[in-house]
Amino acid sequence: MGEWSYGRLRIQMNKAFDIGVESLSRNGGAETAGLDSRFSRPSGETIPSDKFDATDTAAAKSFGDTGNGGTFFLETFGCQMNDHDSEKVAGLLLSRGYRQVETPEAARMILYNTCSIREKAAQKVFSRLGEYRERGTDKIIGVLGCVAQQEGHDIFKRAPWVSLVCGSASYRKLPEMLAELEAGNKRVTGLDNDTDETFETEITRRDNPWRAYLTIIEGCDKACAYCVVPHTRGPERSRGSESILREVRQLAELGYSEVQLLGQTVNSYVDPTAPRMKFSDLLLEVAQVAGIRRVRFTTSHPRDFGADIVEAIDREPKLCDHIHLPVQSGSTKVLRAMARTYTREEYLEKIALIRGAKRPISITTDIIVGFPGETDEDFAETLSMLDEAQYDGVFGFKYSPRPNTPSLALNDPIPEDIKGQRLVMIQEKQRVIQTARNLAMLGQELDVFVSNKSRRQNQWSGHMTSNRVISFSSQEQELLGSYVRVKATDSGTGSLTGVHVG
Ligand code: SF4
């Protein structure tokens, strides 16, 4: 689901926001945009440091000759923010004369852009690094992203063959860090997250030829009790509206027809420049750019979600009819413990705003089960939230304590089997809701952006403006990248199928 089959270098795109019940079972993190976790291969191993010493390994010898013309392999874990950061990192490397290759074996420099929102996600990175423990390496290995920020210099202790550790808030300093590596420096770090700067580059190597991601706000000031993002990505920093619009215009000229504005809390955007544009005004301005046909945004924080956003969607058809609004729990008591800054009732008021729009807007959410102190009664309130909100997709996660988060002090008192049972109950209820919602779409003609061609003859798939995926049949020879009308003819729990009608 959601994996682009063209031109990707082991980077998955768009996975968190494809609506499908199968995604409910992923044991991920908190808010999907930043916290989607895709990993299932735990290792937990600590890598012994006795075999490696950056001062005398072959890796150390190669530091000085990896400059212009070197090759890099970049693997990305986690969310769309990370995907897009990787696009920018790749662009920056390409602009310095590096060449991107498809396998670690072919590369002089191997970079892992990491996610630490779930324990398993962080373990995955050390598992990757552990692959070099026995056989050694003459390559430069770098750890970027949230695990880099989380673990800092400890990464050098666990995996001494690593030579670059850089958190996302320090990406703007990557050119200097690369210069240090090229000059032969063996241990380079960028771990500063006390910044008001955003990461902008002249060149971004985009992996999707039609949907372009743009980060408009980085970091987070919300301090939810379970979340590592404020620690790993630093404080909220918004990008100037004119800079955003300039990039959107460039993207349109390059042929991109769809843009997705990204932020951990995208609707908390505060224009730092003179127009002082509100988020909803920015959405409308982006939609005005010639050539842009669809504008998406994610992830919205319920506290900052206002009627002006719904009014903007009502006014401007190019603004997609999908809002991802993480609720996390249906219990006000648990929401307070999570420091989510809204009550169940306040959240439901936001849902009512969206449901009151002039056109149907798809709503998806994230839910954490098993947060410390969550009783059966609290969980029952979360289940009833599904009934009331009638979500089009739910990303359910089991709570796991993370370092540097306030909830770490609460320990992890809910047993794993209870968490598992609760997750299954969420999945089952949502499956029923989603089946009914899909059934209601049968017979409708839908606008679909064609993004995939099936191996099966005459079969295609694409996204509706609601971000649902629909598979459909067509006799056309080439549809990739086009907008078509599809009539929905059949539905399952997490899928719709149809036929091309024009
Ligand atoms: S701290 Fe920020 S990024 Fe983390 S869950 Fe809360 S709002 Fe989302």
Averaging pLDDT over every residue, what do you get? Answer: 85
| Associated small molecules | iron/sulfur cluster
SS field, number of helical segments: 15
**Total strand segments:** 18
Q: What about the largest sheet?
A: 6 strands, parallel
Helix proportion range: 25-40%
Write up what this structure looks like:
The strands form 4 sheets. This protein has a 6-stranded parallel beta sheet with strand order 2-1-3-4-5-6, sandwiched between helices. Strands 14-15-16-18-17 form a 5-stranded mixed beta barrel. The protein is α/β, with parallel strands linked by helices. The chain has 15 helices and 18 strands. Helix 10 (279-288) packs parallel to helix 11 (307-315) and helix 14 packs parallel to helix 15. It starts with 31 loop residues before the first helix and ends with a strand. Helix content is 30%, strand content 20%. It is globular and about 65 Å long. A hairpin with a 4-residue loop joins strand 17 and strand 18 (496-500). Iron/sulfur cluster is lined by residues 30-31, 34, 220, 222-224, 227, 229-230, 264-265, 301.
Short characterization:
The chain is of the alpha/beta class and 502 residues long. The protein has helices at residues 32-35, 58-62, 80-95, 119-130, 146-151, 154-158, 174-182, 229-233, 241-253, 279-288, 307-315, 332-337, 344-355, 376-389, 416-439, and strands at 71-76, 99-100, 109-114, 140-145, 162-166, 188-190, 211-218, 237-238, 258-263, 294-298, 322-324, 362-369, 393-398, 445-453, 459-464, 469-473, 483-491, 496-500.
